[in-house]
Amino acid sequence: AKDYVKGDSQLLHQQTWMLGTSYIYSVIGMPQGIARDISEDRLPEGLYPPLEPYFYVILEKSLLLRGEYHKLAGLFPMHYEAASRLPNVLAQIYLSLFAAVAYLKLFHKEEGMNLLRQALNLAQADGLVIPFAENMQYIAIPLQQLLHAGFEVDFIKSIQTLSLEEKIQSLQQQIDEKEHGYSLTSREKEIL
Hints:
Radius of gyration: 18 Å
Structural class: mainly alpha
Order of helices and strands: HHHHHHHHHHHH
Largest sheet: none
Mean pLDDT: 88
Low-confidence stretches: none
Shape: globular
Strand content: under 5%
């Protein structure tokens, strides 16, 4: 890794910036802020290998945001395998989670719930709740179903406690207001 960084540290910084900013936009549900290379599934040449799984995480979230569930489900096995080679458990959690949502949206409940359980099992050992808290708008009901079935009860309750859904919606609203130069009145917000 040191040789790679010494060889082209500027490229590494650019890649990190691209992935970091795209990740933030993906979390707040604004696919227009995701780098074109990522949203169009163009893996940058010379991408630092440990960053590759995060490229796939952001790509899959981009597909999820755009409602491209079939494509996400089709790409998942390849992306998961790439994340497994390192191994990169955090990327595996996100990828499993996004694939679970895609399968559930495609009415493949059994596959979706199995992938959600897989993501929870991977995350539970290290207490990694953020991937789930960031994506509660997609998984609140399936998590509640697993909770009622007695699956990882304490862990699911900790995820539900940390849900970031309201904070993400607030950030989206603030960005929209800044981009459009106005804010809605309380009555306008009520109507929307």
